């Protein structure tokens, strides 16, 4: 989950998110290098008495500042496309979970092995127990087995919503009349928080998502209890 | 237009890498669109002889442009045969 004064992305919980973190580091380093170079050159320009105001032709520097940005852009584009194709791979999920967005809560359906349906409402701030996170906790968490590929089918019963869990690198729009699919794979157990990411009305900020990743045996016990 | 490009590069040779990158990028974009038009299973060019190509997809064929981790020759068909 996010913490106060956080500057970067949340810790990765899925292989795709790890790739995205490394890509973000790589691209941000390029951005910092270019920005500091430009700032340095501006400071040099502003603090020199040597000026030449009638430059008409500068072939060498023009060649350099054409080739260098093109190379930098290619160095950013290739890893980006690689991650894009990696996100779209076939990976044989072992479980399918459906989630429907409503105004203003999420409902989850686990229908592979039994008929399990429940709604997930945010816990109001007045009813939080000590230690719980404001605007992030829900009454029924989405319990899922960890280290297994899970197919999430996402849609909406009324208006546009978006099912997002930043720690796993997931954000998929919930569109009424359309079924969107994403795959989820958590590498470690824990609680992972997300919030609805598409404006959907007055309580758009108050419909969070909490994934509880547990070992498979705990998941089986939980789903037997919940039915 | 090609004579314009050559004329301009003779006067300003710094334009050569610029035209090279723009040319390569435009060619790449056009070739990707051509690749999609010719090899994408959603598109049918010959409605008489090959009408519904999307019904004849196999589990071992590669339809995406670039593969990172998936080895298509090892996949098996999950659904029933028609």
From TrEMBL, chain A:
The gene is COX2. GO terms for biological process: electron transport chain. Its main location: mitochondrion. It comes from the Eukaryota. Belongs to the cytochrome c oxidase subunit 2 family. This is Cytochrome c oxidase subunit 2. NCBIfam families: CoxB. Residues 1-91 form the Cytochrome oxidase subunit II transmembrane region profile domain. It catalyses: 4 Fe(II)-[cytochrome c] + O2 + 8 H(+)(in) = 4 Fe(III)-[cytochrome c] + 2 H2O + 4 H(+)(out). Component of the cytochrome c oxidase, the last enzyme in the mitochondrial electron transport chain which drives oxidative phosphorylation. The respiratory chain contains 3 multisubunit complexes succinate dehydrogenase (complex II, CII), ubiquinol-cytochrome c oxidoreductase (cytochrome b-c1 complex, complex III, CIII) and cytochrome c oxidase (complex IV, CIV), that cooperate to transfer electrons derived from NADH and succinate to molecular oxygen, creating an electrochemical gradient over the inner membrane that drives transmembrane transport and the ATP synthase.
TrEMBL record, chain B:
It is a single-pass membrane protein. It comes from the Eukaryota. GO terms for cellular component: mitochondrial inner membrane. The chain crosses the membrane at residues 15-39. It holds the Pfam family B12D. It is found in: Mitochondrion inner membrane. The keyword Ribosomal protein does not apply. Keywords: Electron transport, Membrane, Mitochondrion, Mitochondrion inner membrane, Respiratory chain, Transmembrane, Transmembrane helix, Transport. The keyword Transmembrane applies. InterPro entries: B12D. Its main location: mitochondrion. Coiled coil: none annotated. Belongs to the complex IV NDUFA4 subunit family. PANTHER family: CYTOCHROME C OXIDASE SUBUNIT NDUFA4 (PTHR14256:SF4), NADH-UBIQUINONE OXIDOREDUCTASE MLRQ SUBUNIT (PTHR14256). This is Cytochrome c oxidase subunit NDUFA4. The gene is LOC112659729.
């Amino acid at each position: 989950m996010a913490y106060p004064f956080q500057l970067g992305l949340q810790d990765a919980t899925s292989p795709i998110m790890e790739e995205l973190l490394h890509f973000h580091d790589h691209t941000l380093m390029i951005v910092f290098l270019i920005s500091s170079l430009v700032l340095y050159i501006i400071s040099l320009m502003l603090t020199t008495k040597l000026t030449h105001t009638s430059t008409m032709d500068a072939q060498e520097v023009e060649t350099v500042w054409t080739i260098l940005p093109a190379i930098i852009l290619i160095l950013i584009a290739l890893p980006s496309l690689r991650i894009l194709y990696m996100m779209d791979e076939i990976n044989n999920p072992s479980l399918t979970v459906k989630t429907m967005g409503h105004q203003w809560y999420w409902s989850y359906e686990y229908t592979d092995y039994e008929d399990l349906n429940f709604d997930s409402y945010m816990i109001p701030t007045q009813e939080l127990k000590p230690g719980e996170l404001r605007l992030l906790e829900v009454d029924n968490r989405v319990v899922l087995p960890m280290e297994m590929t899970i197919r999430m089918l996402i849609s909406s019963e009324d208006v546009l919503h978006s099912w997002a869990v930043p720690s796993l690198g997931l954000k998929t729009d919930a569109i009424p009349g359309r079924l969107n699919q994403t795959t989820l794979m958590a590498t470690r157990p824990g609680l992972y928080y997300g919030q609805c990411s598409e404006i959907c009305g007055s309580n758009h900020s108050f419909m969070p998502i909490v994934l509880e990743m547990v070992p498979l045996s705990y998941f089986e016990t939980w789903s037997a209890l919940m039915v | 237009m090609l004579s314009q490009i050559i004329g301009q590069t003779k006067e300003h040779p710094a334009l050569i890498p610029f035209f090279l990158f723009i040319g390569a990028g435009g060619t790449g974009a056009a070739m990707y669109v051509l690749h999609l038009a010719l090899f994408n299973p959603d598109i049918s060019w010959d409605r008489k002889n090959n009408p519904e190509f999307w019904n004849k997809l196999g589990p071992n064929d590669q339809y995406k442009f670039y593969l990172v981790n998936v080895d298509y020759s090892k996949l098996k068909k999950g659904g029933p045969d028609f």
